[in-house]
Amino acid sequence: MANLNEIYYTGKKWKGTTGKDVVNISSYGANATFDGGAGDDFISVNGAQNVNIYGGAGNDMLKVDWQQQSENVLVDGGAGNDKIDVDGHNSRALGGAGNDFVSVKGYNWRVNGGAGNDTIQIWGWDRNVTVTGGAGKDTFRLMGPHTEKGNWLTITDLSAEDVLRFEMNPEYTAVKVHPKTHKPNPYYRKDGSIRYLTAKRSGSTVTLIGNAYGVNLTLQNVTDLNKIANVKVFNGSKQTTLRQLIRTSALPKGVTERNNQLVISNTFRKTFDLGSYVSWSKNINAAANRQKITIKGDGRANTIVAGSAGETLYGMGGNDTLRGGTGADVLYAGAGNDVLKGGKGNDRLYAQSGNNILWGEAGNDYIEGGLGTDTIRGGLGNDTIKCGRGVDKIQFYKGDGKDTIQNGAKNDILYLYNINNIKTQAKFKMSGKNLVMNFTTNKNDSITITNWTTGGLNKFVAGGRTYSLAKSGNRVYVK
């Protein structure tokens, strides 16, 4: 056990023992490092300037006071169930492994609870505090109200098992009245609890707003709104959920919410980006639309249905389903394992990333594979299929028309569901650099593989068997 009790402590490094150490710097500590090491340590530094504090292993109590305006401080609890109480600015607090309690006052803090079920407490006069709860079931206590303009708190990893506690003090006038109008604040009740929060969204960032001097909480990396909808919220004496507390975004004219989906009517003439709105509905139906518009999903598993004018659909993140209408639609899968169906019309389908299913359906479609393992079918019509950088599994059925395959590589596979025996029901010939396949089952069907070589697309499945081709001069035959 070691004890350090000083008024001033500057320019030194202090190392504790494996036991319970006690450090108390009562007035000013600067350009110093304190390392408690193993054991349940107590380290308190007032007026800390350019100070690093390490609790080490054990259940430590680490404190930094605002005296002399503490700044540029690192407080690291290390392993163990630590208690960290810090006041200052431009600093960092790390809970480390264990079930930690971290209380932060001041501004420009970066906090990481680390692994474990942590409680992180942020006071209402703070601003620009960024918190990462880390792995585990974390509780974020917002002690308020927030009495400063601008951002109060950013949480980078709020998850479904975490808890929010809004502990608004009713004695603050900012709770009882609006600071500008001096009228009763509609966001809050008399007991200090929050009536509702308005929300803004930009992609995976959601900002929750109370009023000019009220709650201003930013949630980052929210790829799926529905995964945080049921986060428990203790709101004064009441328990609720984020879904019940948040007022969803006002939708633009021509977009309404019905039967758990967003419906786009014929009056909408713009781009609708679901990632710019807070809506618990993740599916979009534009079947009644007759305008040429663009529709973008968000990070959830969206189902987007186009109308008849020839829409452009973006799945964005998530495992989406995009359905074209009767017009010439353009469908972009985005991230995730998506299903794209062109519908009627001469459509363009792009796989991009993920393992996707792309089906042009009726019309003369253009389909482009992506980075993953894609399953592609042109469908009815004379389609063009461009293989991507991943593995493309191309399907051809009887009556699918005259299709062209570009960029076929050795990892790609062509499934011939229109025949049972490739040796007797398919005929091959070279036309310049292109391989042309004709079929006895339907003379109107054909497949052209551009710039074909035996080292490129040379896996053909028919009747449950896999074949490859050989070439001798202009003669092409089944091995």
Short description:
GO terms for molecular function: calcium ion binding. Pfam families: HemolysinCabind. This protein has 479 residues and is mainly β.
Characteristic key phrases:
479 residues; mainly beta; 3 domains; 11-stranded mixed sheet; Hemolysin-typ_Ca-bd_CS; RTX_toxin/Mannuronan_C5-epim; Hemolysn_Ca-bd; secreted; calcium ion binding
Could you characterize the architecture of this molecule?
By secondary structure, this protein is mostly beta strands. It folds into three domains: 1-101, no CATH class; 117-247, no CATH class; 255-478. 3% of the residues lie in helices and 45% in strands. Strands 21-22-24-26-28-30-32-34-36-38-42-43 form a twelve-stranded mixed β-sheet, with no helix packed on it. An eleven-stranded mixed β-sheet has the order 23-25-27-29-31-33-35-37-41-40-39. A six-stranded parallel β-barrel has the order 3-4-6-8-7-5. The radius of gyration is 31 Å and the shape is elongated. It comes from Selenomonas ruminantium.
Number of domains: 3
Proportion of strand residues: 35-45%
Q: Which parts are unreliable, with pLDDT below 50 for 5 consecutive residues or more?
A: none
N- to C-terminal distance: 82 Å
Alpha plus pi helix count? 3
**How does the overall form come out from the CA principal axes?**
elongated
Q: Helix coverage percent of residues?
A: under 10%
Pfam families: HemolysinCabind
Subcellular location: Secreted
InterPro entries: Hemolysin-typ_Ca-bd_CS, Hemolysn_Ca-bd, RTX_toxin/Mannuronan_C5-epim, Serralysin-like_metalloprot_C
GO cellular component, one term: extracellular region
